[in-house]
């Protein structure tokens, strides 16, 4: 069965917010601590959710359910969440699907097993079961003494009225696979109806879904609208002369119709925010009065929503969160009058209207509605829009849900809704849940003090971030410098302390005399502060060289073992003599164990220090494929447009910080030799190599490369940048310890050309999953790129093999597991 289409179109929770889809910033939600809220002291409650893989509309409902019943236990078919803060630290009991092969990426393919799997979750010990269901959660087995309340986001769509659409989109209209798919859906339909009988009370997220429930299960449902984070928006009464539409650009959103309508109204301005597979089609229809901004961060979207004269919405949604979000800004809505919008927008037929409807999904109807809106614009009062949106707040949701459950469970009568409290993650060391992040972790994980010298986002920091995300309730982080790394860490909910260490900034990697006077005082203060934090930990986990030196001394002071995650090749090519001597000294006196990011790093270290090889382990970095896979459907042209890169050129990308040893100049020299190619340099001079950056620019000017070389500076969205290019190059002129960018290039499904030295040799098998070039040899690089450009077959082979090896050898699970196990072993001995 083609589950990709199913995945994209039909298994989407009913209440996904257009805003979330655009911004990918789900975290801006209130959080609450595991507090002593014992409203349900004597009543044991289980909450069952379909699958935990993301934080979208259905999960926002779940989050508020947990806030209503903080002592409830959670069940789900699978749990592969990255950010699980909205679960308030709760463990999740999962089904056997969790452990099936490739369940993390392909759990949806196990659809035929899902009814069986949900029935195997044992909730017999609970008095009340609340299911949050858009697929199978409502089929959980309950007995006559239990109350089962089901919040239905939608009856399982692709089995019911959307079956034919699903089969068409999945290209399953005929043939043996089609027969099989139809049989499975038939079985699921029967199962779905049968299990409706054991639900005591249904809740639906809209009258629209209540009608579906009635049609399919012949049962009534109480409507409780899903929670919308209206507090993230504020009333703005000053409107400007433009209309706005914003959503993912997928066909059913009908953005093309809105753009077409505005092309017929050249005096009215439309702003379009969002991105997706329909972008090219939409752009083609846009006139000069239509401004297409592409994907925008949350703040930009919010700002446009606040200032727009009206929000235009042409999709038929079960609910339509963005429609409520626009009203929360005091912005009226012009919407297609079908589905959820009918319930969230008050039209001109009643008092205090907040918008109006058009009754056909076509450009003509939209034109007529916008013209009418303009005539009657003064009838829409921003404050009314805001007041209407507040009906859909999370607070109202909690009140209604709690009241519904209380009414259905006699033992809860008299119990009041617990106050809503901000969620603050547990301080490390107080509590341990066995499962963190998406990983199954070893039990009894020690308390870890992670130490890093940097505040910027270099490869070492990005690699540490992955560990922190997975182990965060057991980790506290100490940084010796402030910067974007701290904000990224803070987003994971981990405790971060920045111990200001101006002194370290002055000690450069190369050379540099040993600190004296003030600098020495500063260093000692740093050691003391680190030691103090280490008292609360079982193990010090140093992620960079200077962090290791400070950590080693601090570890001695408070008798804590120190593990160095070695991400450097400790040779004279990268370090000064004094630094190498200090590393040797620390290895002898202060280091318990070393985790090396490649055999090349391990070997250089062993050679330098004669460290016991039993105390060195190689653990390759793990890089998540998800952000790369998510871009598969986005056309390269869209990405290039977003980044302002030439549409048709053969584009070669470098994605390393600007530093001489990273060898960006080699790429520029190769560009001189290959006049038909363009290069894009992504990255900034992170560690004070500004002079090198100046030299690169001067080289470009001197060789007239200005038109063909594009400097993008530091970028956060590396997957998008990589998918925008035709080939990824790595040009380090001294041995690279690991080279994350190489694995990332493979995950982006781009052919990778890398410098033949160091850890790179452990990633690339020449001409199999990438190509190796002599470091510093611009001619060889130019020739290789020319060959790649002309040889489609070679490119395809490298891409296929590269992607496969990145997935199989550099996944995050084995990376996190490897590090966690070593830290645990070291802390125990
Ligand atoms: N990177 C980034 N933004 C940029 C340039 C690079 O986030 O503008 C990332 C890149 O994607 C990679 C990391 O920085 O994940 C660099 O890691 P690598 O191992 O290649 O080199 P290091 O910085 O550790 O020497």
UniProtKB/TrEMBL annotation:
Q: Which Pfam families match?
A: Glyco_transf_4, Glycos_transf_1
This protein's superkingdom? Answer: Bacteria
Q: Gene3D superfamilies, alphabetically?
A: Glycogen Phosphorylase B
Q: Where is the Glycosyltransferase subfamily 4-like N-terminal domain?
A: 91-231, 458-625
Residues annotated as domain Glycosyl transferase family: 238-374, 638-804
InterPro entries attached to this UniProt entry: Glyco_trans_1, Glyco_trans_4-like_N, Glycosyltransferase_grp1
What's the protein here called? Glycosyltransferase family 4 protein
Q: Which organism is it from?
A: Paraburkholderia sejongensis
């Amino acid at each position: 069965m083609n589950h990709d289409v199913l995945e994209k179109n039909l298994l989407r929770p009913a209440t996904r917010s257009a805003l979330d889809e655009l911004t990918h910033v789900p975290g801006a939600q209130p959080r609450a601590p595991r507090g002593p809220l014992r409203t349900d002291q004597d009543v044991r409650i289980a909450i069952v959710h379909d699958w935990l893989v993301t934080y979208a509309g259905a999960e926002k409902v779940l989050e508020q359910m947990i806030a209503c019943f903080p002592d409830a236990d959670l069940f789900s078919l699978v749990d592969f969440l990255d950010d699980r803060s909205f679960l308030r630290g709760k463990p999740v009991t999962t089904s056997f699907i969790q452990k099936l092969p490739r369940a993390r990426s392909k759990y949806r393919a196990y659809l035929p097993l899902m009814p069986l799997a949900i029935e195997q979750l044992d909730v017999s010990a609970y008095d009340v079961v609340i299911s949050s269901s858009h697929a199978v959660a409502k089929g959980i087995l309950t007995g006559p003494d239990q109350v089962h309340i089901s919040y239905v986001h939608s009856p399982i769509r692709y089995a019911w009225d959307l079956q034919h659409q699903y089969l068409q989109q999945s290209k399953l209209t005929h043939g043996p696979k089609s027969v099989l798919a139809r049989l499975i859906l038939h079985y699921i339909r029967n199962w779905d109806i049968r299990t409706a009988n054991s639900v005591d009370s249904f809740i639906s997220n809209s009258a629209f879904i209540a009608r579906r429930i009635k049609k399919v299960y012949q049962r009534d449902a109480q409507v409780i609208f899903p929670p919308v984070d209206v507090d993230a928006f504020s009333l703005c009464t000053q409107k400007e002369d433009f209309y706005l539409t914003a959503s993912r650009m997928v066909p059913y959103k009908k953005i093309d119709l809105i753009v077409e309508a505005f092309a017929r109204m050249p005096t009215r301005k439309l702003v379009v925010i969002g991105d997706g597979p329909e972008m090219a089609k939409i752009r083609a229809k846009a006139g000069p009065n239509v401004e297409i901004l592409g994907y925008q961060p949350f703040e930009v979207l919010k700002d446009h929503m606040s200032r727009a004269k009206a929000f235009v919405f042409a999709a038929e949604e079960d609910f339509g969160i963005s429609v409520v979000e626009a009203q929360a800004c005091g912005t009226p809505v012009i919407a297609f009058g079908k589905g959820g919008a009918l319930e969230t927008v008050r039209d001109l037929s009643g008092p205090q209207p907040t918008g109006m409807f058009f009754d056909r999904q076509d450009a003509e109807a939209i034109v007529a509605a916008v013209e009418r809106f303009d005539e009657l614009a003064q009838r829409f009062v921003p404050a009314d829009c805001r007041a209407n949106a507040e009906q859909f707040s999370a607070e109202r949701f909690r009140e209604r849900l709690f009241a519904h459950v209380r009414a259905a469970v006699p033992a809860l009568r008299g119990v009041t809704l617990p106050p809503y409290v901000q969620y603050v993650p547990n301080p490390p060391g107080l509590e341990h849940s066995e499962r963190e992040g998406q990983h199954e972790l070893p039990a009894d994980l020690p308390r870890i003090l992670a130490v890093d010298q940097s505040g910027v986002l270099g490869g070492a920091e990005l690699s540490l971030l992955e560990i922190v995300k997975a182990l965060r309730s057991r980790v506290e982080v100490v940084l010796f410098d402030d910067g974007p790394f701290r904000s990224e860490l803070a987003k994971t909910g981990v405790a971060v302390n920045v111990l200001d260490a101006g002194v370290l900034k002055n000690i450069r990697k190369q050379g540099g005399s040993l600190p004296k006077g003030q600098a020495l005082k500063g260093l000692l203060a740093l050691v003391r502060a680190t030691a103090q934090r280490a008292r609360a930990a079982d193990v010090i986990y140093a992620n960079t060289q200077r962090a290791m030196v400070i950590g080693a001394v601090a570890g001695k002071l408070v008798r804590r073992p120190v593990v160095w995650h070695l991400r450097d090749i400790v040779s004279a090519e990268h370090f000064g003599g004094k630094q190498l001597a200090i590393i040797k000294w620390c290895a002898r006196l202060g280091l318990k164990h070393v985790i090396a990011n490649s055999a090349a790093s391990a070997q250089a270290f062993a050679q330098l220090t004669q460290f016991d090889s039993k105390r060195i382990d190689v653990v390759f970095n793990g890089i998540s494929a998800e952000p790369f896979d998510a871009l598969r459907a986005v056309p390269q042209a869209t990405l290039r447009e977003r980044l302002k890169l030439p549409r048709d050129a053969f584009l070669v990308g470098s994605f390393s910080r600007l530093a001489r040893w990273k060898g960006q100049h080699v790429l520029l020299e190769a560009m001189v030799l290959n006049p038909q190619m363009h290069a894009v340099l992504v990255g900034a001079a992170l560690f004070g190599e500004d002079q090198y950056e100046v030299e690169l620019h001067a080289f470009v000017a001197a060789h007239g490369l200005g038109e063909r070389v594009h400097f993008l500076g530091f970028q956060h969205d590396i997957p998008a940048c990589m998918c925008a290019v035709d080939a990824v190059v790595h040009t380090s002129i001294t041995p690279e310890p690991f080279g994350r960018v190489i694995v990332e290039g493979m995950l982006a499904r781009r052919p990778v050309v890398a410098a033949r030295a160091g850890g790179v040799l452990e990633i690339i098998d020449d001409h199999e999953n990438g190509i190796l070039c002599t470091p510093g040899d611009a001619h060889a690089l130019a020739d290789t790129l020319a060959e790649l450009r002309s040889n489609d077959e070679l490119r395809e082979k490298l891409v296929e093999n590269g992607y496969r090896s990145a997935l199989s050898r550099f996944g995050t699970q084995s990376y996190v597991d490897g590090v966690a196990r070593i830290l645990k072993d070291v802390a125990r001995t």
